[in-house]
Amino acid sequence: MGILGSLREDIATARSHDPAARSRIEIVLAYSGLHAIWSYRLAHRMWQVPLLRLPARLLSQVTRFLTGIEIHPGATIGRRFFIDHGMGVVIGETAVVGDDVMLYHGVTLGGKAPRGAPKGAKRHPTLGDGVTVGAGAKVLGDIEVGSWSAVGANAVVTRSAPAHSLLVGIPAVAKPLLPATADAARGMHDWHVDFHI
Fold first, then answer.
1. What's the pLDDT tens digit per position in 71-113?
2. What are φ and ψ of residue 10, in 5° steps?
3. Using an 8 Å Cβ cutoff, are 104 and 133 in contact?
4. Relative orientation angle of helices 3-17 and 32-47, to the nearest 10 degrees
5. Which of 4, 64, 97, 168 has its CA 20 to 30 A from that of 37?
6. In Å, how far are 10, 25, 83, 113 from 166, measured between CA atoms?
7. Contacts of 151 (CB under 8 A, 6+ apart)
8. CA angle at residue 143 from 122 to 16, to 5 degrees?
9. Residue 197 pLDDT > 90, yes or no?
10. pLDDT of the residue at 174
11. Which is it for the CA torsion 49, 52, 58, 63, positive or negative?
12. Residue 146: per-residue pLDDT
C-alpha cells in the first residue's frame, strides 16, 4: 500500500472508531492520535537508518510535546491502529502492536527487563491483532496479549494471555472473552470499514 492509501486507511479507521467524528477534515486537523501515528510512521522509517536514529528520536519527542503521545520510533505497529483521545499514551521501543489494535488514553506499553538482560533485548509487550486496551491500562514486560483480546481500564497486565481473553484487575487476571460480552468489551472494535474514501 502506498503512502496515500495508508493515509486514507488511517482516516477511515479513525472515522469508524469514533462516532463523534463528523468529517474527514476534522479528523485530519483535530485528532492527536492520528497525528502521533503519522509522525511515528515517519520516525520509524528514519529509525531503520542508523545515521537517522537521533533525528527519529527527536521527532518522536517533538510529537510527544505536541500530542501528549509518546511512541518510540523503534516500536513495530501494524495497520489500522487507532489511539482514542490519546493523552498519556506511551509505547516503548521493543513493543509490537498487531493490526486493528485500539488504545485509549493513558495506556502504557512499558518495558520490564530481567536483571542481566542483554542490551537491545525485547522488554516491551506484544499485542496481537484486534486487541483493545482500555483507558489507563498498563501492559508491562516482554509478554503477549493474544489476538482479539480486551484489556480493561486501569488493568495492570504482567503475564501473557491467550487470544480472546478479557484482562481485568491489578494484577490483571485473564478470563475467556465470551461472544456475549465481546462487543461490549471492545466497544466500537468489531467494525466494518469502508476504506474507499
1. 999 999 999 999 998 899 999 999 999 999 999 999 999 998 8
2. -60, -45
3. yes
4. 150
5. 168
6. 26, 35, 19, 25
7. 131, 132, 133, 134, 137, 139, 145, 157, 167, 168, 172
8. 105
9. no
10. 93
11. negative
12. 96
- Using DSSP bridges, classify how beta strands 150-151 and 132-133 pair: parallel, antiparallel or unpaired: parallel
Give me the residue label for grid cell 486537523.
29
User: pTM score, two decimals?
Assistant: 0.88
Pairing of strands 173-176, 165-168: antiparallel
- CA dihedral 80→85→184→111, nearest 10 degrees, is 70
In what helix (H) or strand (E) does residue 46 lie, and over which residues does it extend? helix 32-47
Q: Are 78 and 100 in contact (CB under 8 A)?
A: yes
Q: Please name which of 181, 187, 90, 92 lies closest in space to residue 141, comparing C-alpha atoms.
A: 92
State how far the Cα of 42 lies from the Cα of 53, in Å rounded to an integer. Answer: 12
d(Cα 33, Cα 177) in Å, to the nearest integer? 27
Grid coordinates in use for 67? Answer: 500530542
The pLDDT of residue 167 is above 70: yes
67 close to 90: Cβ distance less than 8 angstroms = no
